[in-house]
């Protein structure tokens, strides 16, 4: 059996990602107590959290304070050794600048050696905060914040956002993306996992090359694509265009009935019910209008069937 260098490199990258994430999600050292805890009086503003070797959790509430907890995790070092490594190998910064809170754990130097430490943050914040979360070695979790803009970026873990308001940019190359109970525009992209979106009011752009896409109870324009799985969507209110594309599976969609639609459906086989339809209808292609036309519904796959159902 022959393996290309590209395949070997991809395999090694996946192994390293999983290895780092195991440490990032491992039980904390120092008796599970935070290494550092800081509290700031601030009821609204901006939050920036960055670490290169662990997870980040941000939990919004009705509080008027921001509480930052930093955890150092290791599966091989003693508590004393963890503190020594933190002092020698990291620059830690947790501070308030005006209406901005910054919590940063930065590795000193540019060497490739890994010291077996992952640094994670848990932040309790008032809900009126714009949040920017960045890590290369763990998962990101954001909940209970209601502001204008949020960013979540990781190359080594999953992204979860629950009960939030505002625009959200979510990027990961090493895990899945889950967003539930959101109001605002969503831009989600992953090359290493699935995407699950539920109970969202707002326009959606979602793309993955490494898994399926599941969309439940959304209200707004939806543009979603995957090259590595199927797409399933249940749209409760269709007011803007619905565009779903995959080259690696089927497309199954349920939308409200009785609407004026512009249909463009392509697949190995297309299954749908056409009432008051005008246009072209074949086993693998449907293009035309329902009820005189209106909202665009474009569903396409080169790796399976298309099923469009009406509620």
Structural class: mainly beta
Distance between the termini: 50 Å
Shape: elongated
| Percent in strands | over 45%
Mean pLDDT: 88
Q: Topology as H/E string?
A: HEEEEHEEEEEEEEEEEEEEEEEEEEEE
Helical segment count: 2
Query: pLDDT under 50 segments (min length 5)?
Result: 1-31
Task: Report the count of strand segments.
Answer: 26
Into which percent range does the helicity of residues fall?
Answer: under 10%
What is the C-alpha radius of gyration, as a whole number of Å?
23 Å
Structure, described:
This protein is mostly beta strands and 311 residues long. It has two domains: 1-153, no CATH class; 194-311, no CATH class. Helix content is 10%, strand content 56%. The chain contains two helices and 26 strands. The protein has a 26-stranded mixed sheet that branches. The longest helix has 20 residues, at 5-24. It is elongated, with a radius of gyration of 23 Å.
Summed up:
10% of the residues lie in helices and 56% in strands. It is mainly β and 311 residues long. It has a 26-stranded mixed β-sheet that branches.
């Amino acid at each position: 059996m022959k393996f290309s260098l590209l395949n070997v490199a991809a395999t090694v990258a996946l192994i390293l990602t999983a290895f780092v994430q195991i440490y990032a999600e491992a039980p904390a050292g120092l008796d599970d107590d935070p290494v550092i805890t800081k509290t700031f009086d601030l009821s609204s503003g901006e939050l920036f959290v960055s670490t290169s070797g662990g997870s980040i959790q941000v939990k919004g509430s009705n509080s008027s304070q921001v509480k930052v907890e930093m955890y150092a995790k290791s599966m091989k070092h003693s508590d004393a050794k963890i503190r020594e490594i933190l002092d020698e190998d990291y620059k830690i910064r947790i501070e308030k600048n005006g209406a901005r809170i910054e919590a940063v754990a930065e590795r000193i130097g540019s060497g490739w050696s890994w010291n077996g430490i992952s640094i994670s943050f848990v932040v309790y914040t008032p809900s009126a905060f714009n949040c920017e979360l960045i890590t290369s070695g763990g998962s990101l979790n954001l909940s209970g914040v209601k502001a204008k803009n949020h960013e979540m970026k990781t190359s080594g873990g999953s992204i979860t956002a629950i009960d939030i308001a505002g625009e959200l940019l979510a990027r990961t190359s090493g895990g899945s993306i889950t967003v539930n109970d959101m109001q605002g525009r969503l831009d989600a992209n992953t090359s290493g996992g699935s995407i699950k979106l539920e109970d969202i009011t707002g326009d959606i752009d979602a793309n993955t090359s490494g898994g399926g896409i599941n969309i439940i109870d959304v209200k707004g324009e939806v543009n979603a694509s995957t090259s590595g799985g199927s797409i399933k969507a249940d749209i409760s209110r269709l007011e803007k265009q619905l565009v779903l594309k995959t080259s690696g599976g089927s497309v199954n969609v349920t939308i409200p009935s009785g609407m004026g639609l512009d249909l463009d459906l392509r697949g190995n086989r297309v299954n749908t019910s056409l009432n008051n339809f005008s246009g072209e209808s074949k086993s693998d292609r449907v293009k035309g209008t329902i009820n005189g036309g209106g909202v665009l519904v474009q569903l396409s796959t080169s790796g399976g069937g298309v099923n469009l159902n009406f509620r």
